[in-house]
Design goal:
By secondary structure, this protein is mainly α. Helix content is 50%, strand content 6%.
């Protein structure tokens, strides 16, 4: 069993991409970012543990993990396809169940719908407070704020 640390954000992304592909869906960078965000949020609530150490930033189009954004930046708005191979598992059964649930629940939504969802939720709104809607931001969305908000739902 692997211990999930910041070095595994690539693995979490890979599993989300593979699980989505298995469902017949392909992800854009935008949609992957939102699935990563909800995976982290619900891990904080349901498992009382972070999936990875890296913090999300409150970018214009919603929460973003910079490492994964840059990893897949070359795809721009196009689907991330053909670059991930292997098993859609992390080696940690509770994490695998969580990621399967994230794909089942949030994967059915479009990238735009997920963006609108995050834009209406307190963690992203609070992190961007005082930032004009079209202005870039590297403001961190605190994990504690994510946990508190999603735990209240």
């Amino acid at each position: 069993m692997i211990t999930l640390t910041s070095a595994t954000t690539d693995k979490i992304s890979d599993v989300l991409l593979l699980r989505s592909r298995d469902r017949g869906d392909v992800l854009t960078n935008l949609k992957l970012q939102k699935l990563l965000y909800y995976a982290q949020a619900w891990s904080l609530v349901l498992r009382d543990k972070e999936l990875f150490r890296e913090d999300f930033q409150a970018w214009i189009h919603g929460p973003v993990l910079p490492s994964q954004y840059h990893r897949f930046k070359r795809f721009e708005w196009r689907p991330i396809d053909g670059v991930i191979h292997g098993a859609a598992r992390t080696g940690n059964p509770s994490v695998d169940r969580l990621l399967a649930s994230i794909v089942d629940v949030f994967g059915v939504e479009t990238a735009g719908a997920l963006e609108l969802m995050t834009h209406s939720e307190k963690p992203w709104i609070d992190a961007r407070r005082g930032t004009p809607p079209t202005a870039p931001s590297k403001a961190v969305i605190p994990k504690a704020a994510m946990k508190e908000f999603y735990q209240s739902l």
